[in-house]
Amino acid sequence: MSISAEYAESHKDSPAVLCCRAEEGVILSSHNLEDPEIFDELVDSGLLNLKGALKIGEVLGGKLLKTCDSLTPLTADLVERSAESFAEEKKEAEAPAAAEPAAAPAPVQGSAPLAAGGTLKIHIGEGKGIDIQIPMGIAAAAAPAAGRSAAAAGQALPALPQAEASEKEEDILVRSLTRKHFKITEVRRGPETKLEGTVLTIREGIEKEAVDSQDIVLDLKIDIITPDQYHTFSNTIMDVQPIAVKEGEDELGSGVTRVFDDVVMVVSGTDENGVQIGEFGSSEGFLDENIMWGRPGAPDKGDIFIKTNVTIKAKMNMERPGPLAAHSATDVITQEIREALKKADESLVVGTETFEQHRHPGKKKVVVVKEIMGQGAMHDNLLLPVEPVGVLGARPNVDLGNVPVVVSPLELLDGCIHALTCIGPASKEMSRHYWREPLVLEALYDKEIDFAGVVLVGSPQINAEKFYVSRRVGMTLEVIGADGAFVTTEGFGNNHIDFASHIEQIGKRGIHVVGMSFCANQGALVVGNKYMTAMVDNNKSEGGIENEILANNTLCPEDAVRAMYMLKAEMSGEEIKKAEKKWNPSVKSQNEELISNVTGKPVELVENETSLPMSEKFKEKYM
Amino acid sequence: MPKYMDKIIDMEGIIVEVHDGSVGIDLKGRLGYLEIPMRMLITDYEPKVGQEVGFRMSFIEQLGPEVNEKYVCNLRHRGH
Prior knowledge:
The structure holds 2 protein chains of 2 kinds. Chain A is an alpha/beta fold. The longest helix of chain A has 23 residues, at 321-343. The two termini of chain A are 53 Å apart. Chain B has a single domain (1-61), classed as CATH 2.40.50. Chain B is globular. Chain B starts with 7 loop residues before the first strand and ends with a helix.
């Protein structure tokens, strides 16, 4: 099928192949050319050989020297090229030399010297319909001097100190959040829930209150798992949660939060028939073989688990009240621990860390859009509870209609999402993930961007609802006035339909956008559009699959770094290379190398499932 | 790796169960039953019992003669 002139222009560097029979002497136009998107498959199946084929840009306007059939690659001996196409080629040959310094992988830094030292001279002798694009790194560097000339008018100061002063002015502290850490070395049972030194005691018999709080919860057991007991069988891990509480009347997302170190709440359970809650690719098995330790959402090695094993009524595991009841019953216990933490003596604080949210008005405004699951049952999240990762006061995003909810980066890091966590285990974002969200942390500390905030959007089941919410995402970002955005999602499946739609809605408003998802082999995107040019794959598994290891394929700092550099490159006008047809893990390693070449330090990579112990029986049989 | 993955066949089925988090699908021609999480079902309309669904699949092949003890152990815990 032939292509349009506009399409030919955007694919001018692709090989030129006839779409249908063309007669000798015909002047070649886009109507004679086949869509390059289909070439990969034709080449793979041996139907097409592109060796020696000219580019589309080279043949347009040229004369065909011989009558040819459809799907004939246009080689130099078949086409008499037009004068324009030669001129185009000459121009291109000159361009790379000039563009080379800016083509470094960190375009924002790469473009700075250009702005500092050089003169931008554009001469156009004659022309019509000319678009000139200047990388924003240059424009941004030039802007302070121009914008503040009035203030500097009466002063004979050199330009540089003035620019420095203005940069300081443009750093606005919006709010801050302090975490006070309390160390736990032992968790035991006793007559009262309390904290003594570094020993946490959980009241005996609290299980009954937890069970009684929910109609469909039949039983609840608490297991305290210390590091020497990691080789213990567990039902599928539904969620991993920090134990934290706000100090005094402080609200979520600001003020002071108290948190326990080295201990986490872990929610697990089945229905009364023994069917896992969160069936499908569940992560039941020995804990030490099924957890990717140290992932943002996962437990760290050395953590003590306070693990609940909740039994709910038969067949409720796939209904909305099922997972919610398991989480709510667990939270009865967590809440009592939170109250003990709230009362704890200040002298037990072992360390504090403060997160500050700054705005940098002169810089590119960036928003993080996090798509969270909203199809129902375990595909749900409780938003904005009173206490970090609590239940009380929170609203399920399914009940909110999955529409975008704007939160501050500090609200997100303060546990504003209590995740009911969907499938599958390797790619789901658990509550602890948001508490340590690497992309939000990366953006929070980056002074080269103006990080505006986080937009949470649910992923509904039905396509019409997906497009409804994604149009709201586009409008939200338009109103925010974002220059760039990240869109992240967890897992794979129909959520990729709205993921693609969010990117389209954002991209068509002229906002640069980088998408992040687990894709690799198994999670390949089901749909795409022309705005999905910059994508970061969160895969870490060897085979590019959902490997059933908890949190293995979730967003890690290494992915956040790649995404940030990709967005900066896009915003400064660089083109992102086209993705390869099939998943190729070396693309990731090449990008990491390019980044470390510029920053001078290696991108630290996390381990994957190959670092975990295998069961003895498995080793005996297969190794 | 499976040997016959390229042999893709058209399949159809009927939604026979709808839950908040999953649907059950009978494959037409009594070829089996599938239960899939909601996320793996693409829907233009609200899912209802009796609706027909379509997809393509390859034949299912054994990956080898070995028994993976991890999964056997998990099944034992489920009480199967």
